[in-house]
């Protein structure tokens, strides 16, 4: 989990498939946005600028029910504010593998390169759940009422400045170059490829590959990519 801190308001981005829900008040000048464990100096007198829901997975689960979109509309109307979503995307094979490892409590073991978690039944279930969540994200894009920013985890790592800038633009906040630079330095140097720490059957690989094709935002990924 990574945290995005905007003057005292911390959003935790789930780097698993995540949808971060943001409620907006108005944009302010001279805000500093920093990512990933970086704490900015004490903010000026607190004014809530961004309220966020950090629960990426929970948001995805809620949005499996189309009726819950009405709730979003209610929130927007009640708060008289703009709802925006940050959709954090990672290679599905790694997302799924990480879930399996977490389920089996074998994440630590997975640090040993030769270790592979092997539970085909559980993996099948996780793949099903995973794509239900992906479908939510897709539905949110298609709903069209809200702005959704797709953020690719591997690009945040490979091009931090550009992506933090993109995030700031989306949030309508100005940023300070020093903070962007400092935040960039705190990023991992490369994505963690947990897909290699579990056993996939060829059917499972094919299934995920085929499911991915339904979603334009998954186009950059495949099993063999190094991100
Ligand atoms: C995974 O487990 C199955 C049995 O559950 C076994 O047949 C298979 O050989 C195992 N695969 C690996 C790579 O360990
Ligand atoms: C797979 O995981 C499930 C859930 O943790 C467990 O009930 C089952 O026994 C596991 N199967 C194997 C072959 O390890």
Description of the molecule:
By secondary structure, the chain is α+β, with helices and mostly antiparallel strands. 41% of the residues lie in helices and 17% in strands. The protein has 8 helices and 7 strands; from the N terminus they run βββββααβααβαααα. The chain has helices spanning 56-62, 68-79, 92-103, 120-143, 153-158, 160-171, 177-185, 202-212; strands at residues 2-6, 9-13, 18-24, 33-35, 50-53, 82-89, 147-152. The strands form 2 sheets. A 4-stranded mixed β-sheet has the order 5-3-6-7, with helices on both faces. Strand 1 (2-6) and strand 2 (9-13) form a beta hairpin. Helix 1 packs across helix 4 and helix 6 (160-171) packs across helix 7 (177-185). The protein is globular and about 50 Å long. It starts with a strand and ends in a 15-residue tail after the last helix. The relative contact order is 0.18. The model is unreliable at 1-19 and 21-38 (pLDDT under 50). The structure holds 2-acetamido-2-deoxy-beta-D-glucopyranose (2 copies).
Features:
EC 2.8.2.20, binds 2-acetamido-2-deoxy-beta-D-glucopyranose, 227 residues, three-stranded antiparallel β-sheet, alpha+beta, 8 helices, protein-tyrosine sulfotransferase activity, Protein-tyrosine sulfotransferase, single chain, transmembrane, membrane, 41% helix, disordered N terminus, 7 strands
């Amino acid at each position: 989990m990574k945290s995005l801190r905007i003057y005292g308001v911390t959003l935790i981005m789930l780097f698993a498939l995540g949808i971060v829900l943001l409620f907006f008040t108005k944009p302010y000048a001279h805000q500093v946005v920093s990512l990933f464990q970086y704490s900015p100096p004490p903010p000026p007198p607190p004014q809530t600028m961004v309220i966020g829901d950090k629960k990426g997975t929970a948001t995805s689960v809620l949005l499996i029910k189309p009726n819950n979109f009405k709730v979003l509309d209610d929130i927007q109307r009640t708060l008289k504010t703009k709802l925006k979503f940050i959709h954090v995307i990672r290679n599905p094979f790694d997302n799924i593998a990480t879930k399996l490892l977490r389920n089996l409590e074998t994440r630590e073991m997975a640090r040993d390169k030769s270790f592979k978690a092997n539970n085909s039944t559980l993996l099948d279930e996780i793949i099903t759940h995973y794509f239900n969540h992906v479908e939510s994200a897709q539905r949110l894009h298609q709903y069209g009422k809200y702005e959704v920013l797709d953020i690719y985890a591997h690009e945040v790592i490979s091009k931090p400045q550009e992506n933090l800038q993109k995030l700031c633009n989306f949030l309508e906040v100005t940023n300070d170059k020093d903070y962007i630079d400092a935040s960039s330095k705190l990023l991992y140097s490369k994505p963690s490829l947990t897909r290699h720490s579990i056993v996939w059957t060829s059917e499972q690989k094919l299934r995920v590959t085929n499911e991915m094709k339904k979603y334009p935002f998954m186009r950059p990924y495949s099993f063999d990519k190094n991100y």
